[in-house]
Write a structure and sequence with these properties.
Layout: E1 6-11, E2 32-33, E3 37-38, H1 41-49, E4 54-58, H2 64-70, E5 84-88, E6 92-93, E7 96-97, H3 103-108, H4 111-115, E8 121-126, E9 129-131, H5 135-145, E10 149-155, E11 165-169, E12 175-180, E13 189-198, H6 199-208, H7 217-229, E14 232-236, E15 241-243, H8 247-256, E16 284-285, E17 290-292, E18 295-296, E19 301-302, E20 305-307, E21 310-311, E22 316-317, E23 322-324, E24 327-328, E25 333-334, E26 339-341, E27 343-345, E28 350-351, E29 356-359, E30 377-379, E31 384-385, E32 390-392, E33 396-398, E34 410-411, E35 416-418
């Protein structure tokens, strides 16, 4: 086997529970973004653009659609005889059958895969962020500082710092203190969950911590190496990076793509974002169609009106329908005469005729006010909404609903319909 200088381990097993019904049937890295992409496309594209051609993708929660999307890695030029992309779900071992219990535990359970390539360095990535990064530049910083571990970090607003691992570093970038999601952070320099380790150092740490319950990079590995080696450094990243882990942040990140000069450009020639594009049909616009300031995916048919929205591939917007300030994912159908305003419609949804989705005033959600905490109406994969119903704001629908599920034809703001077996 050809020795690799650096391989990547891409953590893509998370549920993304803060996305509610959007991840009821699909893992977060497989959610669509920007009309034609899936979130996993961004770290995979970063890898091949950075010259990293060996990527292990660690999957766990509802990974069927993710597996199908990645396949053998052809869209990212990762279909290689030596290296390429490899899907790594948990598997039964002699004497035990263990789920991944933490980010570091997932890597520990795949030591054999890493050792097959005997790398000098291992790059650890999350599969659930939107960003572009040249990992080769980060590797050079790691080499120059002779670090045991290098953590990609960026400054975040102080009010958000408690959501992250935060670090205090000296003028040379050496980490002095590290706190994982502190209640009262002493720094707003936040870890992005992107790490480069010397492989020998990481292996020793993983073996030493193998019995640690829920072994995690931020909670266990980084503090362990910080104390043992004193050689953990910061890579200060100044580019675009978004955690789209909530309904509101996911919606906002999509809407930002519609700006005249977006902060995040999906179409740069020198740093392309690659994806598995199954649909090859062109878009079709009917004679009465109207589209303004929107992204429209391949194979989509527009007969109604679309304003300030992101529409995925294979979607049908029927005549007389109005989709405004919304996200409609692939293969969904919006019935004639229906109006959507600040809604997220997941894949393969059928919205009936003359529906109002996202109407009325905001109300606190009675089901889960931590997950559903915006004025966005959210509809999960494969759901059916019958003709003529009204759906309020900060609502959630999952499953094949019927008119009888809507008292007086209404789902009030702050309410949900979750059909049995859909969550």
């Amino acid at each position: 086997m050809v020795k690799k200088e650096m391989i990547a381990m891409l953590l893509a097993g998370g549920q993304g529970s803060r996305l509610g019904v959007l991840t009821a049937d699909i893992c977060k890295p497989a959610i669509t973004f920007g009309g034609k992409y899936r979130i996993i496309d961004f770290p995979l594209s970063n890898c091949i653009n950075s010259g990293v051609d060996t990527v292990g993708v660690l999957t766990q929660y509802r990974h069927l659609r993710l597996n199908s999307h990645i396949g053998i890695g052809i869209p990212w030029d990762l279909d290689r005889n030596h290296g390429g992309v490899t899907l790594l779900p948990p598997y039964e071992k002699t004497g035990s059958s263990d789920w991944y219990t933490g980010t570091a535990n997932a890597v520990f359970q795949n030591l054999e895969y890493i050792e097959k390539y005997n790398p000098e360095y291992v790059l650890i990535l999350g599969g659930d962020h939107i960003y572009k990064m040249d990992y080769g530049v980060m590797l050079q910083v790691h080499k120059n500082s002779h670090a045991a571990a290098t953590i990609a970090c960026m400054h975040v607003p102080w009010e958000e710092a408690s959501r992250f691992g935060v670090v205090i570093a000296d003028s040379e970038g050496r980490i002095k203190e590290f706190e994982e999601k502190p209640a009262n952070p002493s720094s707003n320099l936040a870890s992005m969950g992107i790490y480069i380790f010397d492989w020998k150092v990481l292996k020793e740490a993983l073996l030493a911590l193998k019995d640690q319950p829920g072994c995690d990079f931020g909670k266990h590995v980084i503090p362990y190496l910080h104390e043992k080696t004193g050689s953990c450094f910061v890579y200060d990243f100044n580019g675009y990076w978004k955690d789209v882990g909530t309904i509101e942040s996911y919606w906002k990140a999509n809407m930002e793509l519609l700006d005249i000069v977006p902060d995040f450009n999906l179409y740069e020639e020198f740093w392309k974002i690659y994806t598995n594009s199954e649909s090859i049909r062109p878009q079709y616009f009917g004679s009465e169609a109207s589209v303004d300031k929107s992204i429209i995916g391949e194979g989509t048919e527009i007969y109604g009106t679309v304003e300030n929205s992101v529409i995925g591939t294979g979607v049908v917007i029927e005549a007389g329908a109005l989709v405004r300030n919304s996200i409609v994912m692939q293969d969904s159908v919006i019935g004639s005469g229906s109006v959507l305003d600040r809604a997220i419609i997941a894949e393969s949804v059928r919205v009936g005729r003359n529906c109002l989705i996202g109407t009325g005033d905001y109300a606190e959600n009675i089901y889960n006010k931590k997950v559903y905490a915006s004025d966005i109406a959210t509809v999960g994969d494969n759901s059916i909404i019958p003709d003529g119903v009204k759906v309020g704001r900060n609502t959630a629908i999952s499953g094949q609903t019927q008119l009888s599920d809507y008292p007086d034809g209404i789902l009030p703001s702050g309410h949900v319909i979750i059909k049995a077996g859909d969550m």
